[in-house]
Amino acid sequence: MNMSAHLRNGLVGLHSVRRWRPSLRLSVGLLAVAVVVGMAVVLAEVVAGHLRSIAADAAVHNVEAIVRGYVDPQVDEGSLALDALPEPGISDELERLIVAGDIRVISIWSRDARIVYSTAAELRGRRFSIDDLVARAFLGTSISAYAVNQDHSEGTPGPTDTQPVLQIFVPIRGLVDGDPIGVYEVEQDARPIEDRVETTRRDVFLLALAAATVLLIILAVAFAGTSALLGRQNRLLRARAETERLLGVDLRRSEERFRSLVRSSSDVILIIDADGTIGYESPAVARVLGYDPEERVGTSAYDAIHDADVAWIRSLIADISTRTGAEAAADFRARHADGSWRWLQATAKNLLNDPAVSAIVVNYRDITDRRALEEQLRYQAFHDALSGLPNRALFMDRLDHALTRARRDQSAVAVLFLDLDDFKSVNDGLGHGAGDELLVSVAERLNRTLRDADTAARMGGDEFAILLEDAHDKHASVEIAERILEVLRAPFTVQGQHVRIRGSVGIALYTDPEQTADELLRHADVAMYAAKSQGKDRLMVFQPDVHLVTIDRHQLKADLHLALDNGEFTLLYQPVVDLESTTITGVEALIRWQHPRRGLIGPTEFIPLAEESGMIVPVGRWVLAEACRQGQAWQEGAARPLTMSVNLSARQIDDIGLIDDVAAALRDSGLDPALLTLEITESVLLSDMEVVMARLRALKSLGVRLAIDDFGTGYSSLSYLRNLPVDVLKIDRSFVAAVDSGTAERALVRSIVSLAQILGLETVAEGIEEPSQLAALRSAGAQFGQGFLFAEPLDAHRVPAALARVTSCARPRRRAASPAPRRGRRPVRAGITSTS
């Protein structure tokens, strides 16, 4: 057959195609209609999805506003504690939130995976597994998800019927460090959202369909005008393609195209036989591994694979070699020409039985950067970004594994929980940058102190946990804890300054095969708080009675929130006298708590709890108002003005509302500001001096007097005193107790008095109990004093009788219920300070 015959056959074929053209147009038209409808459906679904997402975000913000405004003020760590009694106020607030609106169920999770409060009675008090949504909420992220209701009776939290709902999870943040202490789970009726979404989907679909239809008509008109030209060009192209095919042009072009693709491919194409000998490797190997592809031919592909990976790669290739067409994928390390190791991702296919190939074809690429990023992300997920120590997630994982081994091998495990004492003062005094630098230094010291097998982790804030494996006995754990406390006592250098920090350590020992990692860590935490309550800078081994003490402490903290509303606080007043005449010139207001079950509680028990919980601010506000009211009542019938002294805590000084509180107390009571003395401790000066000075000057502008309490035991320097707007120095009772015992002690008190006189300040000596102390103080030049030598703290109704007389220098007669303290005993005070 000659060339002309071939061309005739080709033209006959083209005429056949022309006869079927209407069918082709019909197919194209149907395809266009399908595309139009499909695009309309897709567009409608995209818009519906965006609308559903926007509605979910709006619902989250709405729920956050509701729970922050109505529920958050009543929730704290105490109300979510393991053994805390449910608070009716929280439950009532939750019930009110579901009366109106779309909220159907609202629950509160605690950190130990319990639902503590819920409007669904079957969920209250039950423990559930924490899924991804709840876990993300515990990490501080508000999140939502659409769901179909489930049955609560099956033991799962969630809705109670088959209607669509929006589940919303909002973190509950603690008052102290802002970390999540619980999670709100809100189930909101999603039907209104779904109705709006469905309406929008339908409208968008119809609009998109109409627009696409118009466009299709325009295209059809345009197509009709150009179809003849396109048909003619198509016939010419087909004829030319048929001719080129007959001449072998297509084959050569395909070969050239294939070679070009192989040469320019970013992936390496490797052809090997069943035993790994390289038959061909594409030029991309020079870029990926730095080798000349020609030099690799005939060598073994396994020569460049890492020793740790070569055995299983051989096994994988051998496996697919036995199965025609089998494929396998693998990630492994291979040596680069420069000697470094690169991670490769490879896919191998068995084409040994394909006559055109007769080999195994491997495609691989360099994924070193991706693997490095994955390793970095994995490291960040399980390590603290600041200190580089393992985080809570990694610590709990290692603790779980350690307990598993301990149950199997009968080995010992101990957990230490470390909390830095007074770390807040570093942040407040030097800034958060210095605090972060200090935490990094603490982490370094912990790593140097511990054994290689031990794990130190940062749990958050200034809290660290240490896992001790193979801790042979209690003494070994105690020795390590003592070593940690000792290394912390050495000064740290932070931003060029020497900083001293201490720590409190709780120890929990693995003693029961039923113990879980959470329980062991919680026991160590309880023991740590017990160590703090006994004076800090010490360790405590967990015992069951320690747990009871901690529970009692949490209960007292919970009661403290109700004490102010229930009017359980009362004030006593200790007279301040002129040391020369022993005339009463003023009183100091001291707080007591009349607990309904425990009776009268001294400030040493509840003031630290008030400081921790933040209740110190409203309690201090009440003390100010009550003291000013009572002081003004006494002025009206007194023969001489009577000063009123009130203690301020560091938390009150930090509170931006302090100035308004003092002004309101003076205004409401009518007390002359000059008769009110506000006492601050030297520890307040550790905070930001600019803020403290601004607050003190604002207080002075109200006309009140300021005093430094417990002077001589803190951090005041002469430069501070010279600049502070204070009027009074109160000499600490520790100096007064020894003033009559020797020349050096009297000289120390005399130097304090002289300093006050130089600065134009009054002096008040605290804790005077003996006539000899009074005589020594008079000799030193002290002006005023207070103590049991003159009078004990008095109820308000006993103060007028004391004002009507002048006290003698002898110890007053005591009631049987209030025996005189022994010499040197520090009487319990109740000012609103952390040391009171």
State mean pLDDT (0 to 100 scale).
Answer: 81
Helical amount: 40-55%
User: How many distinct beta strands?
Assistant: 26
* Overall body shape: elongated
| CA-atom Rg in angstroms | 41 Å
Query: Structural class from helices and strands?
Result: alpha+beta
How are the strands ordered across the major sheet?
Answer: 18-19-21-22-23-24-25-26
Approximately how much beta-strand content do the residues carry?
Answer: 15-25%
Distance between the termini: 117 Å
User: Low-confidence segments, ≥5 residues, pLDDT <50?
Assistant: 1-7, 10-20, 806-836
Number of helices: 26
Major β-sheet, in short? 8 strands, mixed, barrel
Describe this structure in words.
The chain is α+β, with helices and mostly antiparallel strands. It has 26 helices and 26 strands. An eight-stranded mixed barrel has the order 18-19-21-22-23-24-25-26. The protein has a five-stranded antiparallel β-sheet with strand order 2-1-5-4-3. A hairpin with a 7-residue loop joins strand 9 (341-351) and strand 10 (359-366). Helix 13 (432-449) packs across helix 14, helix 15 crosses helix 16 and helix 16 crosses helix 17 (603-613).
In brief, what are we looking at here?
The protein is of the alpha+beta class. The protein contains 26 helices and 26 strands. Strands 18-19-21-22-23-24-25-26 form an eight-stranded mixed β-barrel. A five-stranded antiparallel sheet has the order 2-1-5-4-3.
List keywords for this structure.
836 residues; alpha+beta; 5-stranded antiparallel β-sheet; 26 helices; disordered N terminus
